[in-house]
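User: Can you predict the 3D structure of Polysaccharide pyruvyl transferase family protein? Sequence below.
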Amino acid sequence: MKIGILTFHRSINYGAFMQCYALSHELMVRYPQHQVDVIDFEYLHKHNSYRAAMRQFPFGIEYYFCYNRFQSDLKRLPLSSKSFITDRTDELCDYIDKHYDIVIVGSDAVWTYQGKMPVDNPYWLFGNKLRNVIKMSYAASAFSSRFDEIPLEERELIKNRLSEFYYIGVRDEVTKSFVESLELGITVYLNHDPTIFLQPATDVKIAKMTLRKNFVFNNKESVSFMTRELPKIDKLRGELAEQYNLLHFYRRDRYKADLLDNRCRFMNNVSPYEWYNLYGQMKLNITNFFHGACLGIINHVPTIVVDDFEQSYMSKYAQLMTDLKLTDRLFYKKDFQYEKFIEAVNYCLTHREEESQRLAIAIDKERVKSQSFFLALDNILK
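Assistant: Sure. Here are the predicted structure tokens for Polysaccharide pyruvyl transferase family protein:
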């Protein structure tokens, strides 16, 4: 049978790419007798926004390098034979209906549509327009949605689309609660993020090459940052910079100020696959991005999360750390306590092996959340 994956694989976002890489490769390993494709779709307006970002001064040049590194990694995905970069999706619907037996939506925030795409978008899988396809979701998310602002007619449309799914797996409790509130009459399962399928990265050669091309030539150990306006960042850099390389990924913590701060290195010339391999060599990982946490944890790198989510429900970062029983490594920006934070930082740096073993055990337990999905898929493919 032919299996298609529909997700945000073209996003200039490290986690979005790596979750697609992880899910597609996990399926190919488990089901070598079946064809697995990543359906190569992206909205045109989203695609064009990346080029607009390259024209911004002074950060457009950095974004240009980052964009091209992402494009180079697309070859690592089993892309469909036809690409759809378009805001008109009728042809995409026809293509899916004619070429795939099963389509899996997810992972990532594919069901977060408010202000980003039409409510009736391809990630709900077109309703009865797809006549020949078995529909599933894996770790799909509507995280960051304003659920209380979804009109009744949009809820009804979503309910209509999801009622045709053979299996619904979501990534977070808030998405699970939303889908269950639609009263579909079917079980909604909680899955782990696909990046949890990944094993710790072991390609030291790629890691060293990536450091060199980003002008990191010394032999110091490195601490990774994927943060945005981390509290007390100046003080933290002052305590760590002499002993460690401070490597910032995806975005600068403070855009203008960081241009002049030689204590840190912004790693803009890094592909997603290089990011994964480089994280395997980190001494410590500090982040307030979900996949920044996931990639550190799957690499068994001690990881500290600072939650900066401001809506009323639990964030995906907090849920991840709670599910993994790592809440002692979870801090909140709104009531940030630097003394406790730096205590955790120093402990992780001096007890890396102990922390790594703890993460390995937590990840093994988390992988149980994919079992219901593979049981359902096995039932279709047998």
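The chain has two domains: 2-197, 204-365. The longest helix spans residues 14-30.
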